[in-house]
Amino acid sequence: MPELSRRRALSAAAVLAASAGTLPGMTPAAAAGHHGSPATFDEVYKGRRIQGRPTTGAGHHHHGAGYTVLVDGVELHVMRNADGTWISVVSHYAPVATPRAAACAAVDELQGAPLLPFPAAG
């Protein structure tokens, strides 16, 4: 019998958890707004201005499915996972349900430090 690798074990656990519905707040339906696009937001969270909106056009390569998130006017690099959850460059290992939640998690993680621009791959 082949030895069980860490990747296979984690994949199997994720599949079992998802099929049992035990991943709270991580369903694609909960992560999406109207027509599968996350809702636009513009608010102050813990004294920091967070904004999010759909983006259009080419130029910067977005993994965020055409969605831009800003913290105090600086772009927070976000990415949408295959399961519909979102991660950011600041809280990469903590998937959340929405880009707004990713912005809030980044503010929490920054603990008052400024967000530095993420260098664009060229």
From TrEMBL:
* Family under the similarity heading: Belongs to the melC1 family.
State what protein this is by name.
Answer: Tyrosinase
Q: Which InterPro entries does the record associate with it?
A: GriE/MELC1_sf, MelC1, TAT_signal
- What is any Pfam family matched here? MelC1
Matching entries from PROSITE patterns are given as:
TAT
Annotated source species: Streptomyces djakartensis
Q: Which residues form the signal peptide?
A: 1-31
Q: Which keywords label this protein?
A: Copper, Signal
